[in-house]
Amino acid sequence: MIRIENLHKSYPIGKDSLHVLKGLDLHIKEGEFVSIMGSSGSGKSTLLNIVGLLDSHDEGKYYLNGELIENLNEKKAALLRNKFLGFVFQSFNLISYKTALENVALPLTYKGVARKERLKIAQEYLEKVELGPWANHLPNELSGGQKQRVAIARALVTNPKVVLADEPTGALDSTTTDNVMDLLRDINNEGMTVFVITHEEEVAEQTKRVVRLKDGVIISDELTNTTKAI
After folding, report:
1. Residues 154-206 pLDDT 10s
2. Mind listing the pLDDT tens digit for each residue in 119-166?
3. pLDDT tens digits, 6-15
4. Of 26, 103, 170, 221, which cross-links 4 as Cys (Cβ 3.0–4.6 Å)?
5. pLDDT value at position 228?
């Protein structure tokens, strides 16, 4: 599903450059539940941005669903994102003046789905994350955990191949964190590939595979006890 070979990424800083990713090799198969662990500055957010087609790499190869990703213009990148990827962010990224239902339906707008149909589908996904009764609430009327579940429903509504979750529990308490991770696990158990960026050990341990980054290189890639017990 995701194959990365000898991936490099640098950013200019004045006259110098910062080498963030230093020859990564990573293969994530369809249906895996993987976390990318690392402290601030390890390169994990840069990796997520490249995998999510929000940024480009300098060297190496990146394949998404078997397609070599190179020389994408923004239009093609947007099409591929909408087709293959769903995003969940730490800050939820919900539109404040739209209801939970309208937020979930938004990606279907870009796919040209008619309003009545997209609201019907969005309601189904809100039910899936146990938020059906909150469909007409605005984000400021929801708790942090509820906002994140709306964001997960929005990520799922286009039926993507991969869900990319960037610190999805970073703004949540421990109980709500466990609830969100249970939801991501359920999604994965239904066959979807889930890719989580985190700096929290407790979150990583709830995924099935942990890839650790440090200073732009992979220092370990292991199955968790959760996987070994299955």
Report:
1. 999 999 999 999 999 888 888 888 998 999 999 999 999 999 999 999 999 99
2. 999 999 999 999 999 999 999 999 999 999 999 999 999 999 999 999
3. 999 999 998 8
4. 26
5. 57
Q: What is the band of 229 on the pLDDT scale with cuts at 50, 70, 90?
A: low
Walk me through the domains of the chain, giving residue ranges and CATH numbers: 30-49+74-229 (3.40.50.300)
3-state helix, strand, coil in the chain (%, to 5): 40, 30, 35
The rounded radius of gyration (Å) of the Cα atoms in the chain is 18
Q: Tokens for 23?
A: 């020859």
DSSP secondary structure string, 149-211? HHHHHHHHTT--SEEEEESTTTTS-HHHHHHHHHHHHHHHHTT-EEEEEES-HHHHTTSSEEE
- DSSP states of 20-48 as a string? EEEEEEEEE-TT-EEEEE--TTSSHHHHH
Buried b / exposed e along 78-104 (16+ C-beta atoms within 10 A): eebbeebbbbbbbebebeeeebbbbbb
Neighbours of 53 (CB within 10 A): 21
CB 97 within 8 A of CB 146: no
